[in-house]
Amino acid sequence: MTDEIIVRVAARGDGLTESGRHAAYAAPGDTLTEAGVVIAGPHNVAAPCRHFTRCGGCQLQHLDETSLAGFVNDRVVHAAQGQGLTAKDVEPAHLSPPRSRRRATLHAERAHGQIVIGFRAAGSHKIVDMRECHVIAEPLFALVAPLRAMLAKFPGKRLAADIQLTLADQGVVVEIKGLAVEGLGPTEALLDFARDHRLARLALDQGYGPEAMWEPEPATVTFAGTPVALPHGAFLQATADGEAALYQCARDWLKGASAIADLFSGLGGFAFALGDRARVLAVEASRDAHLACRSAAGRSPRHVECVHRDLYRNPMQVDELARFDAVVLDPPRAGAREQVAMLAHSAVERIVYVSCNPSSWARDAALLVAGGYRLAKVRPVGQFRWSTHVELASLFLC
Ligand SMILES: C[S@@+](CC[C@H](N)C(=O)[O-])C[C@H]1O[C@@H](n2cnc3c(N)ncnc32)[C@H](O)[C@@H]1O
């Protein structure tokens, strides 16, 4: 064995040499010595955050911008290659900037009498007490110290809660799960916290599902000028700029389409983004998200109609798809095998497949290609900056 150069970063974040040796926190251009020591090269930079390597929130802060974009790009290209597919036109990766993530789930517990709050440690259930964070948006981070102080007022030795933070139009929505709130004192502490920090909503889930205890006006998120009510736990793209990059792909690639199906439509972000120049049918299985989208569509000048439907059990059939000249689909991490099997046999001219999992996307992409489609364009998107989580938009033409 000799010294070798790290040539790329593997899916889980390790640096890899040509011969397949790997090393943690190694960047392309680093040297991996015979003894297994990593000698930093030009793309290995000092991590901005003091918690890096302990906190499980980030795996790649040691990469400079070029290698980070390379990683996001390679994840998508290699997933496609693994299924025998070549994307001819791979657009430059979009990377969300630091401090832009608008939703995050933090964890809190009492340890040795102190409240700790943050992401879980890498490969462990321990919580890394967050004193700084370079990924979550400033309004979310600004709540961490006040949350710590507020939770310290809760009595009892044991405290363990999950805290979901989401940036809505009106401010931050905070949903706390697992916190036992008994008596007037803790209730007042929560309400004071919500008022003092001008929360958009404070919801508690004590085992019966989330219940809002503070929401001065209905919390919304706005898509293409259309405010849509934000139900508890509804899906939202992780960053506003990442969302804009994905919607822009759909708008650019579907120019001229007149009837579009937006499958796995959530609150209707793609539907509203496309509904100014085409009729869009938004199809979604979550009843709360469907109703929020339908109600917003009723007030919007955009041409959006909504259907409540489970596309895993009941995918749109080939004859139903014949009504559309384009389809956008943005399924959960598992992909959309059943729906894609129908699309593969359809005559839909253009399909924009948006994915948060290059592996399931590549598997589904191979089905589309076997059905006669060609992978025309790909745009890798790194909304989860410095993590190994990669998203993408892709265009298939028949
Ligand atoms: C990745 S999100 C995309 C949401 C939306 N396109 C957006 O950009 O905000 C996936 C969506 O699929 C929905 N979903 C999950 N399983 C589904 C199913 N079986 N049928 C239809 N929709 C489903 C989820 O509720 C979620 O809203």
Describe the structure in your own words:
The protein has two domains: 74-96 and 236-397, Vaccinia Virus protein VP39 (Rossmann fold); 103-219, Beta Barrel (OB fold (Dihydrolipoamide Acetyltransferase, E2P)), CATH 2.40.50. The chain contains ten helices and 22 strands. Helix 1 (65-82) packs across helix 10 (358-370) and helix 9 packs parallel to helix 10. Strands 6, 7, 16, 17, 18, 19, 20, 21 and 22 form a nine-stranded mixed β-sheet that branches. It is an alpha/beta fold. The chain has helices spanning 65-82, 138-141, 144-152, 184-196, 240-253, 269-274, 287-299, 318-321, 337-344, 358-370, and strands spanning 4-9, 15-17, 22-23, 31-32, 38-39, 89-90, 94-95, 103-111, 114-118, 160-168, 171-177, 201-205, 210-214, 220-223, 226-229, 259-263, 279-284, 304-308, 326-329, 350-355, 374-382, 391-397. Helices cover 26% and strands 27% of the residues. The structure holds S-adenosylmethionine.
